[in-house]
Amino acid sequence: MAPGRSINILLPSSLPFQRPRPSIHSSSPSLRPFCRPLFLQSSCRTIPSGPSLSTHTSASRRVFRRWNNIQVALRRSQSTVVVHHKGRARFRRSISFLTISTLSFVVGTYLALSYSPPILVPLIMGSMPSDAETLSIYEPPDDLSREIDEQIRNCALAVELREHPDFIESRPHLKIPPEVRQHNLTAGTLAGPGMIVVPPYYFNEKDGKSMVQIFYVGPDCSGHPGIVHGGFLATMLDEGLARCAFPAMPNKVGVTANLQINYLKPTMAGQFLVLRATTTKTEGRKAWAEGWIESLEVPEGEEPQKLVEASALFIEPKYANVLKSLYRVSD
Fold it and tell me: Which PANTHER family does the entry mention (predicted)?
């Protein structure tokens, strides 16, 4: 067949690609421009041959796709609209949240109290002894410890402070539960034979005005042979000044903000030492203290000499009320 010529083919109405024509009187105004007949009124249609056949076929496919889109739009326009009740949904969510929160709290509390490590239980339950009870808790493990403990308890300075009505005697290291004490630096790590042999004795003046601490330091706390390590002395001063200043603070607890130390003389190991501290100033959440360490035993007729002195600034943190309840600090 020569190019450019055409033939007539009779197309019956039952062909699968023929589609019913939508009504031009459709109720949807947006669909009227797309309602066009696909074929002419005649049952015969001229199908071109040659190069024009592919062009005609692609045009028919575009028309079919458009008609399919119209049918989808019609089905969507007739779909049912679901109305959501926001009030009921919000109420159900609230009930679910409260139920899950309550259940989680109950289960968490049960697990915390049942399976928490023994380190946390004494702090949570508040089973710390009082100042008076700490004086009878310690039991010396050997003869040397017993001798050192008796010598501190019966020395002239301890007897004098014990009789003073403004001073309260205690051994605060023994307030820490044994499970926690082993992780504490001065009460656990540095405590024992050859170091801080027995828990120190503290004498605190009311309202945090002053404090006196008596303790014994063994040879295992040395830096140079026979000389107490400077870091150990700094640690004892830091803790001693803090225990002096804390009672003068609003919530009786704080942290070290600044510590200055002056080493005056070598401190020999294997002797009894006295730490004296005084609260010099308080201002809101801040407290300043200063003090020094001296020897307990001095030759008759001589005054004790300062071995090391220090001054410190302590600040009460914003969460001090939580720490106060944690450490069971009494007003």
Answer: THIOESTERASE FAMILY PROTEIN (AFU_ORTHOLOGUE AFUA_1G10800), UPF0644 PROTEIN PB2B4.06
CA distance 63 to 38: 8
Question: pLDDT tens digits for 255-287?
Answer: 999 999 999 999 999 999 999 999 999 999 999
d(C-alpha 230, C-alpha 269), whole Å:
11
Q: Does the pLDDT value for residue 154 go beyond 90? A: yes
Closest CA to 143 of 202, 186, 193: 193
The string of DSSP codes covering 36-65 is --SS-SSSEEEEE-TTHHHHHHHHHHHHHH
Hey, what are 17's tokens?
A: 């690609």
Neighbouring-strand partners of residue 191: 196
| Amino acid at residue number 282 | T
d(CA 136, CA 124) in angstroms, rounded, equals 24
DSSP assignments along 85-153, one per residue: -HHHHHHHHHHHHHHHHHHHHHHHHHHHHHH--TTTHHHHHT----HHHHTTT---SSHHHHHHHHHHH
Tokens 């589609």 correspond to: 19
Query: What is the widest separation between alpha-carbon atoms in the chain?
Result: 142
Cα–Cα nearest to 195, from 186, 182, 206, 207: 186
Report domain 131-324's class. alpha beta
Residues classed as catalytic: 238
User: Which residue in this structure is represented by tokens 């409260």?
Assistant: 98
Decide if 306 contacts 293 (C-beta within 8 A). Answer: yes
| pTM, 2 dp | 0.62
| 66: helix, strand or coil | helix
Residues 6+ apart with CB under 8 A from 117: 179
Phi, psi torsion values for 82, nearest 5 degrees: -95, 125
